[in-house]
Flavin-containing monooxygenase (Macrostomum lignano), 463 residues
Amino acid sequence: MTNKRVCLIGAGPSGMSVLYHLERLRLEGAIAPENLPEVTCYEKQDDCGGLWNYTWRTGTDEYGENVHGSMYRSLWSNGPKEALEYPDYTFEQHFGGPIPSFPPREALRDYLWGRWNKYNLKPMVTLLHSVQSVNFDPAKDKFTVVVKDLKQNKLLDTKDFDFVVNCSGHFSTPNVPYFKGIERFPGRVMHTHDLRSWREFSGKRVLVVGASYSAEDSALQSIKFGATSVVCSYRSKPMDFRWPDSVSERPLVTEVGGDDRVGAGGWARFSDGSMEQIDYIILATGYLHHYPYLAEQLRLRGPNLLYPAGLYKGTVWLAGGNNRLLYLGAQDQYYTYTMFDAQALWTVRYLTGAIQLPSSAEMAADAKAWVNRAALSKTDQENIAFQTDFVVDLANQSNYGYDLDVSKIFYEWEDHRAEDITTYKDRQFVSKFSGQQAPPPGQPFMKAIDDSLEHFLASCQGK
Ligand code: FAD
Ligand code: NA7
């Protein structure tokens, strides 16, 4: 019998965690050679890192592929690092000392790389290869996968795989709603996916549509970089933070318009009948589950949820009884790196035969129970408790070896956000895994501009 062949799509934090645990267990001799899967990891970017790789590009890249990156310059972690810290590789281990709780993007990327370098994972990734199609062939009982070598601009011969592990992320294809009159709006309209620099908002009046993380950060970043006013428009409920005076919230925008003469501004009308003069529109309206390369019957669809339907353990694809397609990181996220890591170890245990699936009926009932509970989860507290249980369940099933429950940190973080949305990133937490107390940041978030790793480390107290 030949070893199972696995196609791993994407080398962001989720995909890299699969490679990490597989290699760790292999080196520990914990996987019998006959159970060791042969994994091919395809990544369309030129490096591992997923969204944590900053790119200046928007739209399509030099190979005509959709640009994956949604991160902008001046992006600081929106949750405390203590809530995403890997228990077996702490921030203290990586940086050799304490760092503040809310590092900029480059510092988090560096941390991820530190853990991946422990097992020299990069050579295991086939970079600049984009998966173009995945079909399941019942006659062969295999997935047939077509991949494009981007540098050579060449489709490779179709390859057969026993499993497909989809780690392509779901915060990359923007959800772009239409608002009446938007085609005639005289200013710039952009989705947060295409945002790279906040400097162009200096001196402008900005409309932000949306009421979640991207909307919150868009409002704060705009005023940090000199926007004169920001109006946030919500569909369901306002964010209701104690905003600075220059930020306000309105119900859903119903129409936008303006004057086409050079230098003239635009306006927005809201469902309460009020109007505002605006220069720019930022659509912070979230992202789509978008997997165009997956065959129709293998495609996850729907909104951004804590527990998307149809996935056993939030991971195994259930439709049509095809349980050899797995989705990692498809959840809405409070927990991030550690959730992907628990999911990855669970996946590795499954791929290596250490975890056996129950019957289809049991899997469907289990998934349904989680979906039903998620539907009842409304408040941040309930959502955090829900995701904590989800992560702990995965960790228990896969013998993760550490208690990943950091709900107390998340609850405290929510309290800080409610107290003052402009200062919550200046607060400090204690690491559950190193016991280390974080120092205050070198500069408050609302004043910090230089997001480079070099500047961050230099400005850390004690460095
Ligand atoms: P991704 O990071 O999206 O990686 C997916 C990988 O798959 C990419 O490298 C992509 O190139 C590759 N890929 C996609 N399609 C193909 C294909 N067809 N063929 C080959 N490769 C493919 N999380 C936090 O913890 N803290 C934060 O502060 C934070 N801020 C965020 C800010 C923004 C603006 C966004 C959008 C997200 C943020 N996140 C944050 C959440 C982020 O989603 C996760 O931290 C993490 O990056 C998800 O990892 P992933 O591996 O699942 O997906
Ligand atoms: P989210 O968290 O999925 O939120 C999307 C927001 O966009 C949410 O408030 C939605 O309102 C709103 N939305 C979606 N469609 C519309 C329309 N048609 N009209 C008005 N408002 C709309 O995405 P984010 O980008 O904020 O966050 C994604 C990740 O990036 C996250 O993990 C962060 O770490 C950064 P709703 O509340 O559903 O009514």
